[in-house]
Design a protein that fits this description.
It is a multi-pass membrane protein. One of its GO terms (biological process) is potassium ion transport. It is found in: Membrane. This protein is about 60% helix and about 10% strand. With about 650 residues, it is an alpha+beta fold.
Length: about 650
């Protein structure tokens, strides 16, 4: 076994620090990767990574291809191809759960081999939740298989997922053998077929029904004790004020001092006391006014400037204690027998609608509180509840620090949700049809214009598959064609790129080089061989697959592929086997990290809408991971003998 050098110790220390940051997310993953890059250069005498070598990752074929594929995928998505396909599936399945599940996992799996799977899943989530409500199917039964199918499909081609491209780049560096467009396809087809078969049989039985079928928003988010109606009495100090003036202003120091003087004197507040004075006594209340009903007409509370009148009925969000306190201090009658349902709010006639939206990894709300963002005052958007896995948060919402995977129940104007989604705040997952029509400009349709981005994508794949052009040059040519034909503007093309992923990949590439150069990869490979004892090469290949899959489920797949590929190749060298099948096994393992919701972006996207628990992913994904460990190891050893 090679001895452990000082340089290897330094690199291992950086690996431990990086893994800690990935797990704790004290820094975002992309910033962690850049920090690793800087540290490798600063410690060059030990790591052997000079400055110019460290930044070569930004010009690597893998990173350039990833940037281009983001743009090409956005071009296909903007033409309505994915929306149209989703609509066709809805029409063809007719509400049968088994047929719908088959159509979803089959279509998602195949399309994810050629188009970035994140927008595919983003489009299918509202489709699935809408059809679930229409046909009385629990969305929990469909959303987790949707995410898993997208991950399985990513193994079909070189461009199926970013880690495939990264693995190809590392294969070229370590073995002088990059992937072609369809290098992974023989095994990818087997993996997809086995995975889909599992999801339609065993997986279907294991997926838990966390969200009750046909539950409306108020039932799904357990809002029965957190929505109420209050009638404005003649003597209420709210009369003559708008909602914003009455309840959303701050309490001034003068008002508080005046109230303190009255209370200290043992007197009660006069009947003409201002709302501000009353609230100074009661303290800030965790209550939001959502809707005003007057003589059969409804008004959106945050958008109307109509003064309140006696007899107005206010629909409010808040717990019973806060609502009772509000009613008592502001002379409102609590209509306790009136039940507030989603239908009552949905059939209001005003522009506010109920919707669900998820916080993804790239959301501008991630790590911030609602108090920081001020959605209600800036966008007239009110958050009614936050679902985090199977937990629903109703109280002190402004203080909740939002995390990736959180699902928000919103009351939003039709014309504001598009801005929030376009600006990267939220991703809409469920809402009324008119909300999606407002976002998409109408129901999904497919016209002749869609042929252009489709033809561009197919041309890129064909040029790369026939070895007429390197994939990164063909993809860049496709980007030029996408912009030149008007499919996307140049600014939208740049916006389509997930730049945090680009920096994550480019920043981590030199870490793999340092592992190889300092002998760290060979040392770990030797330990792995020693630990495996007398295991035959095929069993060792399966062990590498399992270790990679577990690690990828705990941190980002990109970080895992950079760390594990040098180790896998070194392990193969230690036992005198070919390094390429070990490298391919790692590639498949990182693309199918099923065990947690944090291992892969699409898992996070369905985590909230499906109402899943953290352990549900291991419950369904664990057996699938073991099954694919055997299937992948055997298939890889057949296609590329050890």
């Amino acid at each position: 076994m090679p001895s452990l050098s000082m340089g290897a110790l330094v690199v291992f220390a950086l690996v431990v620090a990086a893994l800690t940051l990935f797990v704790t997310e004290w820094l975002s993953p992309d910033m962690t990767a850049i920090a690793v890059l800087v540290a490798l250069v600063v410690l060059e005498p030990y790591t052997g990574v000079p400055a110019r070598t460290a930044i070569e990752g930004f010009a690597s074929p893998a990173v350039v291809t990833i940037v281009a594929m983001y743009i090409l995928s956005a071009g296909v998505e903007s033409a309505g191809v994915v929306d149209w396909l989703a609509g066709r599936l809805a029409a063809l399945t007719g509400g049968d759960e088994r047929r719908l599940l088959t159509a979803i996992v089959g279509t998602t799996g195949v399309s994810a081999g050629f188009v970035n799977n994140t927008p595919v899943v983003a489009v299918f989530i509202p489709l699935v939740t809408g059809l679930s409500e229409r046909y009385g199917i629990s969305p929990s039964n469909l959303l987790l298989p949707l995410s898993f199918a997208a991950m399985l499909g990513g193994t079909l081609t070189l461009v199926g997922t970013a880690t495939n491209l990264l693995a190809s780049d590392l294969s070229a560096q370590l073995l002088g053998r990059p992937f072609s467009m369809f290098t992974l396809t023989p095994v990818g087809v087997v993996v997809l077929a086995v995975g889909v078969g599992y999801l339609l049989t065993v997986g279907r039985a294991l997926v838990p029904e966390r969200v009750h079928p046909a539950a409306d928003f108020t039932e799904e988010f357990e809002m029965d004790r957190h929505l109420a109606q209050l009638r404005v009495r003649e003597a209420s100090p709210l009369v003559g004020l708008t909602v914003r003036e009455a309840l959303e202003g701050s309490v001034s120091d003068d008002a508080v001092e005046a109230v303190v003087d009255v209370v200290d004197a043992g007197e009660s507040l006069p009947t003409e006391a201002t709302v501000e004075q009353v609230l100074a006594v009661s303290g800030p209340l965790d209550v939001d006014v959502l809707q005003i009903d007057r003589d059969g007409e409804s008004f959106f509370a945050t958008a109307t400037d109509r003064p309140l009148e006696p007899g107005d009925v206010l629909t409010v969000r808040g717990n019973r204690q806060a609502v009772n306190q509000l009613a008592q201090t502001l002379d409102l009658r609590d209509l306790a027998r009136e039940s507030v349902t989603a239908d009552l709010l949905a059939e209001s006639g005003h522009p506010g609608v109920l919707a669900e939206a998820v916080i993804d990894r790239e959301s501008r709300l991630r790590g911030r509180t609602l108090a920081d963002v001020q959605l209600r005052s800036r966008f007239d958007v009110t958050v009614l509840a936050v679902r985090r896995g199977d937990e629903v948060i109703h109280e002190d919402l402004t203080a909740v620090e939002l995390s990736a995977g959180d699902l928000l129940l919103l009351q939003t104007p039709l014309d504001k949700m598009g801005h929030l989604q376009d600006e990267g705040y939220l991703t809409l997952t469920e809402g009324p049809p008119e909300l999606f029509d407002a976002l998409e400009g109408g129901p999904p349709s497919l016209d002749a214009a869609a042929a252009v981005p489709l033809a561009t994508l197919l041309a890129v794949i064909a040029l790369a598959a026939l070895d007429l052009l390197p994939i990164y040059i063909a993809a860049l040519g496709g980007v030029v064609a996408t912009v030149a034909t008007g499919t996307l503007s140049a600014s939208k093309a740049y916006d389509a790129v997930s730049w945090n992923v680009v920096f994550l990949l480019a920043g981590l590439l030199p870490l793999g080089q340092a592992m190889q150069a300092t002998g760290g990869a060979a040392f770990v490979g030797g330990l792995l061989v020693d630990a495996a004892g007398v295991l035959p090469p095929l069993a060792l290949l399966a062990l590498v697959y399992l270790l990679t899959a577990v690690l990828a489920s705990a941190i980002t797949p990109a970080a895992t592929v950079v760390l594990m590929i040098p180790i896998a190749v070194a392990t193969a060298t230690e036992i005198g086997a070919s390094g390429f099948p070990f490298l391919v096994a790692v590639t498949f393992a990182v693309a199918t990290a099923f065990l947690t919701p944090i291992g892969y972006q699409t898992n996070l996207m369905v985590y909230g809408p499906g109402g899943y628990r953290f352990t549900d992913f291991a419950r369904v994904g664990g057996p699938l991971q073991l099954l694919l460990c055997a299937v992948t190891s055997l298939s890889v050893s057949v296609v590329w003998p050890l």
